[in-house]
């Protein structure tokens, strides 16, 4: 004997209502998702995948709460991989062509290395040593050394000016961390170097010393006491050389903070996102203000240094000793200095 707890008719009615309620609830969830919580890609992109506008992109990058969630969307534009008008279809075509192009470039130098060409073998050895040292404390990169080496080797072979210099791998790791693609990271790194950083690595060092002189002038006007304590004269510029060369990339203990600093530096340094009134020789200003802000963050530590050896230890200590710094406070101070400086130039 079968006991019928619910009649067949009631069961069908219940299923119908339940399905109806399910559709309603799904609509409610979609509405909530679009209004609250993590915003969707549609806030930045049109339905076809093209960028709505660059000002909205700049605001997203400038907003700390949104930026870290959307770097996979914002950095390809920031580093000029995608143009604002590119649709989803255009992006797929670009990625396919980029992969073919990159693999062709890579195979060419790999053949020269396998043939024992002394120039390529020596270059590969130099790059490999630096790749192994760069960000080795970060778990993500432990199994990515080969990809990083391939990118850096390809760049160095096909860009003899400036060629490879120590420190370039520092600027590559944040890009690879965000893009997670060997070929796209290569083209993004090329864009960064061409549009912003290659002059800093020139062997004549004209640009980096111009940046150092500008830093000295601004820092002295902002905090003369601290400037005098460090005694920033021409022969002592090695203290700040690395900071200005690498956009303070090694001066923060958490890698996510490094990404935050770099995207703010780059958005203020590279067109089309840089201020339209910015002159090329002032594109390094935000980096300079970040440097000054770090020094002021550590003001008490620096003023307590009793001799040059103490100062040396401060500037060249490991990143783990920088965990006391507030990245948020440093960037807020740097942005205030930067805004005030721009206002004073009008």
UniProtKB/TrEMBL annotation:
The UniProt GO MF terms for this protein read: GTPase activator activity
Keyword annotations for this protein, in alphabetical order, are:
GTPase activation
Q: Which PROSITE patterns match?
A: TBC_RABGAP (PS50086)
Respond yes or no to whether keyword Coiled coil is given for this record: no
Q: Which domain of life is it from?
A: Eukaryota
Q: Which residues form the Rab-GAP TBC domain?
A: 65-269
Which SUPFAM superfamilies does the annotation name?
A: Ypt/Rab-GAP domain of gyp1p
UniProt key word Acyltransferase = no
Cross-referenced PANTHER family: SMALL G PROTEIN SIGNALING MODULATOR 2-RELATED (PTHR22957:SF502), TBC1 DOMAIN FAMILY MEMBER GTPASE-ACTIVATING PROTEIN (PTHR22957)
Name of the protein this chain belongs to: Rab-GAP TBC domain-containing protein
Q: Which organism is it from?
A: Rotaria magnacalcarata
């Amino acid at each position: 004997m079968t006991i019928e707890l619910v009649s067949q008719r009631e069961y069908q009615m219940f299923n119908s209502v339940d399905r109806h309620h399910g559709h309603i609830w799904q609509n409610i969830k979609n509405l909530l998702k679009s209004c609250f919580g993590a915003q969707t890609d549609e806030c930045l992109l049109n339905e076809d995948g093209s960028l709505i506008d660059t000002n909205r992109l700049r605001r997203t990058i400038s907003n700390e709460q949104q930026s870290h969630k959307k770097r996979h969307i914002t950095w390809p534009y920031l580093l000029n991989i995608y143009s604002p008008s590119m649709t989803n279809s255009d992006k797929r075509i670009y990625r396919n062509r980029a992969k073919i192009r990159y693999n062709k470039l890579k195979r060419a130098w790999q053949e020269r290395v396998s043939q024992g060409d002394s120039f390529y073998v020596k270059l590969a050895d130099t790059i490999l040593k630096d790749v192994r040292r760069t960000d080795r404390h970060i778990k993500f990169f432990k199994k990515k050394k080969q990809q990083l080496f391939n990118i850096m080797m390809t760049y160095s072979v096909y860009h003899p000016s400036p060629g490879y210099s120590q420190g370039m791998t520092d600027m590559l790791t944040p890009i690879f961390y965000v893009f997670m693609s060997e070929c796209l990271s290569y083209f993004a790194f090329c864009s960064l170097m061409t549009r912003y950083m290659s002059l800093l690595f020139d062997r004549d060092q004209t640009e980096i010393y111009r940046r150092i002189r500008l830093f000295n002038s601004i820092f002295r006007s902002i905090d003369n006491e601290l400037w005098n304590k460090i005694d920033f004269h021409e022969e002592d510029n090695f203290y700040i050389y690395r900071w200005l060369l690498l956009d303070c990339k090694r001066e923060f203990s958490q890698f996510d903070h490094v990404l935050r600093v770099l995207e703010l530096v780059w958005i203020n340094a590279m067109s089309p996102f840089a201020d339209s009134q910015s002159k090329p020789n002032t594109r390094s200003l935000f980096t300079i203000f970040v440097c000054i802000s770090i020094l002021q963050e550590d003001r008490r530590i620096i003023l307590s240094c009793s001799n040059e050896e103490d100062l040396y230890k401060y500037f060249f200590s490991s990143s783990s000793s920088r965990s006391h710094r507030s990245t948020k406070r440093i960037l807020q101070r740097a942005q205030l200095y930067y805004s005030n400086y721009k206002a004073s130039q009008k």
